[in-house]
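Hi everyone,

Forwarding the result from last night's run.
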Amino acid sequence: MSTKAKLAKRLLDAGAPEFMVHNAETGYYDDYESPIAFPITRLVADCQEYDLNDVAEEAKCGEFDGTLEESNSYLRRERK
């Protein structure tokens, strides 16, 4: 399961607002797909704003950081 799918499921299970689940599904919070510079920081801030403190702590601990496989895939895309 991709990191963004894992995060989307976790947010859905935690009762996150629909926009956050959508952000996760589309890669907004993803290390390699996000259009913003610090997607995990944004994830933590959004989680804190909506009292999803357990998810925020998981994010701070690296639970939703991109994997080595995702990193390698990103590097292959960038070389083309």
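The mean pLDDT is 95.

Cheers,
N.
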